[in-house]
Amino acid sequence: MLQNYQNNFQQFDEEEPHTSHAHKKSPYLTKKAGALVAALCILASGSIGYAAGVLNTAVPQSVQSGTQTTLPAVSSDSTGASTVAANSGSTGDALSVTEIAARVADSVVEITTESTQYDTFMGQYVSEGAGSGVILSSDGYIVTNNHVIEGASTINVTLRDGTSYPATLVGTDSQGDIAVIKIDATGLQAATVGNSDSLQVGDTAVAVGNPLGQLGGTVTDGIISALDREIDLDGQTMTLLQTNAAINPGNSGGGLFNDRGELIGIVVAKSSGSGIEGLGFAVPINTAMDLVDDIMQYGYVKGRIDLGMTTTEVSSSTMAMMYGYSAGVYIDEVTPGSNAEEVGFRSGDRIVSFNGTEISSAADLTKALSSCSVGDTVEIVIARNGQRYVGELTLEEAHA
To answer: Of these residues, 177, 221, 259, 294, which one is catalytic?
Structure first.
């Protein structure tokens, strides 16, 4: 249970609000690397009222024409779940961009989604989005980004030949920004999975995706500009490949291929800002496939921590002035039946410190969590109504 912090009430300089509904949730739509800002490459729009709309999700359509030859092996474990085995990588002469485009054309898809949203001012409305995805198995398993399908009530996949299928969510991992979806189809052309650990700066990189949500099958080329870039994605640090191949909104979840047409990365973000060009980022395929393997076997990535609550960062002075919020990280929702609920945390509590680390941003909380494991017991100090309380929380494993 929550206890008075240091056995007494400590007053704040400002009043802490009871609820968190007046401020905005952290959008998870930006990434920072030094002075650079990288935007997740989804395309989203919304419609006010009860008309149709779509959420931030989509997969790229395949590129121009041609076929791909090598398929990942698909097997079943003891539970009957399908698994995708990465190809070890082909050998031979490098292909031209034209040949690469033809080889991977049928393996890249377009994804569109719909989600019902609620807003204090606009009421109920539907949001829609578009992105990309890559086929991993001939029976319809597709990898994309978590942020492409996150919160979607419906997911649709369009193949290169124009055929559309409803998709179901197999599992997702927000920390790695990877998701697996499934369509009911057979005989699909799967991508050949390469080895991102063998990449060198200067290697050919070809991106295929659905920029602007309307240009499925678009091919852009460049090189691998850097390896192991640590990019801060809205408080979540990720180690990514950097490329100068043109990346645009709608490319998220699409494929980055090497000079043999092998999948070496899942496009996730591009830099944005005045005067910034040629900075795109992708999840290395070796990293992505480790997550995919867990998702396909368990429906989630094992070992991820579930705090039992969602949080929201308030950083805007305007929001603070309008609604009386001080800057910081607030608890948005507490999961019913979770350890966090049992301890006594509530929506609207501001997290002051986590295991002795002062928390002023989502990045601070993420960094503090990175040194923890499932089963650890941590001390969390929160602010509520001008007083501080401390609670000990045993960290649970996230299963979705």
So the answer is: 177
Cα gap 52→45, rounded to integer Å: 11
How many whole angstroms separate alpha carbon 344 and alpha carbon 209? 46
Annotated active-site residue in 252, 294, 349, 364: 252
Active site residue 349: no
pLDDT per position as a tens digit, 127-142: 788 899 999 999 999 9
CA torsion, ordered 173, 210, 225, 172, to nearest 10 deg:
0
Smallest CA-to-CA distance from 74 within 180, 204, 205, 173 is with: 180
Phi, psi of 338 (to 5 degrees): -85, 165
- pTM (predicted TM-score): 0.70
Pick the more confident residue, 217 or 397: 397
Residue 12 in tokens: 């704040």
Q: Is 234 one of the catalytic residues? A: no
Query: How does pLDDT run across 233-255, given as a tens digit for each residue?
Result: 766 778 999 999 998 888 899 99
Q: Per-residue pLDDT for 147 more than 60? A: yes
Average pLDDT rounded to a whole number, residues 300-310: 90
Spot the catalytic one: 115, 147, 234, 353: 147
The angle subtended at Cα 129 by Cα 223 and Cα 305, nearest 5°, is 80
Q: How far is CA 280 from CA 133, 167, 246, 322, in A?
A: 17, 27, 7, 36
SS3 sequence of 324-391 = CCCCEEEEEEECCCCHHHHHCCCCCCEEEEECCEECCCHHHHHHHHHCCCCCCEEEEEEEECCEEEEE
Active site residue 290: no
Q: Which residues share a beta bridge with 172?
A: 179
